[in-house]
Amino acid sequence: MRPWVRSAWSWFKRVVPWALAVLVLVLVVRQARTVDWPAVGQALQRLPPDRLAAAAGLALLSHGLYASFDLIGRRLSGHRLSAPRTLGTAAISYAFNLNAGSLVGGFALRLRLYTRWGLSASTVAQIIAHSMATNWLGYLWVDGAVLLWAPPRLSDGWSLPDPALRAIGLAMLLAALAYPVLCRFARPRRLAWRGQPLTLASAPLAVWQLMAGGANWLLIGATVWTLFGGHVDYPTVLGALLLAALAGVLTHVPAGLGVLEAVFVATLGGRLPVAEVLATVLAYRATYYLLPLALALPAYALSEAVARHCNRAAEAPARR
Fold first, then answer.
1. Torsion angle, CA of 305/310/311/314, rounded to 10 degrees?
2. Per-domain boundaries in the chain
3. How far is the C-alpha of 112 from the C-alpha of 303, rounded, in Å?
4. Residue 205's pLDDT is what?
5. Distance (Å, rounded) from C-alpha 141 to C-alpha 173?
6. Please, what's the b/e burial string for 289-320 (b: 16 or more CB within 10 A of its CB; e: otherwise)?
7. Containing H/E element for 190?
């Protein structure tokens, strides 16, 4: 690749996500001015407590399943940190990741917590890589299945023809299914990811990654669907959620703030009153984003205190 092409591509990768973020934020602000916010508040108050409790339970179950992705990295990297401590570190990081962005929760906080427990930066990089792979492999096949059998309906001017959506869905499914095949036949078993060594999973473990990653996305979809109280069918809610997740990643907006709401309104605004859609999405934010963060904050403080105590205990014999 010629130097000027490489330079232009590097500039494009840096500028376009921020341009998309600005565009989305402008559209969100314009849309927010047209929303009847008192009606949204009234719709929130009408949500039954048992529905909120069920959604909170599904949300916490999803967070637990996502935390288990780090156990895959634990097995493949061979580190000896205990399973409970690994799960706790992953759960804390995921809650911060959702609310503050991947650079804070997915990378920086994970690196700090794991290295405080004695893991090297290269080992943490492997854990992060396998966790990300599990998450996005699950996204690929779940979204591929949705596009293939129940493509989401967007507002006029934004939707693609069904044949195009189904072709994209089929390609996503095939890409996900190619992963365990790659793991089965690839030689050597160790690759490089951003300069760090990465051990490929065995074929059975790769299949488990597909199933666990997909199950988590299905659980997240079930959380939102529960809050809608059955007023919208599950595949439609799941499709809107998957589209919102992709839009959030592309725009780099922390917590998908505004992006999530805009996509759900664009997808479901023709089926339900906009106030009801926004109230449900806000309730989803409270149960899936804020509730786990409220639990992660004291857990993080406790983790730091325990790590300091363990480090002092380890250093005490050396000072004698």
1. 160
2. 6-313
3. 11
4. 95
5. 5
6. bebbbeebeebbeebeeebeeeeeeeeeeeee
7. strand 190-193
- Give the pLDDT score at 306: 84
43's tokens: 């719709």
> Which has more pLDDT, 212 or 33?
212
Tokens describing residue 153: 């309906």
Q: What contacts 65, CB < 8 A, 6 or more positions away?
A: 212, 215, 216, 219
Q: What is the mean pLDDT of the chain?
A: 85
Lowest mean pLDDT among 72-76, 176-180, 188-192: 188-192
Rounded distance between C-alpha atoms, residue 306 and residue 298, angstroms: 12
Long-range contacts of 282-286 (CB under 8 A, 24+ apart): 282/40, 282/44, 283/44, 283/47, 283/52, 283/55, 283/227, 284/55, 284/223, 284/224, 284/227, 285/255, 285/260
Q: What is the number of other CB atoms lying within 10 angstroms of the CB of residue 259?
A: 25
Average pLDDT on 286-297 reads 95
Rounded Cα distance between 34 and 207, Å, is: 46
| pLDDT winner (highest mean) among 40-44, 222-226, 246-250, 309-313 | 222-226
pLDDT exceeds 90 at position 203: yes
